[in-house]
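Data availability (excerpt). The following record was deposited with the supplementary files.
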Amino acid sequence: MATRVENVRGRSAKHQYVDASGTWLPGTTTIVDLLGPVGGLGYWGFQIGKSGEVDDYWAYLKGLASTGSCVHAVITAYAGETKVDLSVYTGQEIEVANACLEKYKGWEAKHEVEFIYAERPLVSEAHKYGGTLDLYLIVDDLRTVVDLKSSDEVRLSHKVQTASYGQLVRENGEAVDQLIVLPLGRDDQPMKNVWATQNVEPYWDI
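Predicted structure:
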């Protein structure tokens, strides 16, 4: 396994992946975006821009991305019992992240959860792509890849993306018994429609 990590604008680490030969590889998100109408980020962004609902499209997307980064930072730090520097985020972003953290805690309280690792960049030498999964946990005795989403719904692209993380984990020597997507949303409403499956192959096959 080989990865290269660059820090982008001090807010989040943008992972750029290379294989053992030094060849640059696409990331999971880039590949999933090619799914288009099934719910990739690129298609979603196109729909937002087309709707005319926001005045400054790029500023809107940047704000959502920063909020999502803050959510991930807060929850993965909590899960791994580590500290996180939130000085680069706005008060509103931190408020959203803390609301999402409470939802995560509520989900966690319903299960037996053991932390293994978080935010680990991995590379598939067999399939030539890379990805950084959010959480790898033992949930109710099942080794589980958990993907955190700041949206309030689970789209097919989310399922495919999480399955691709599962493949990365397996290829790098760990078992994967279950995939979970947590649609945390960006408000204080209860989380619903958590997606979990132990049948991972159909989503990887896509």
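Summary of structural features: Residues 62 and 68 are 10 Å apart (CA to CA).
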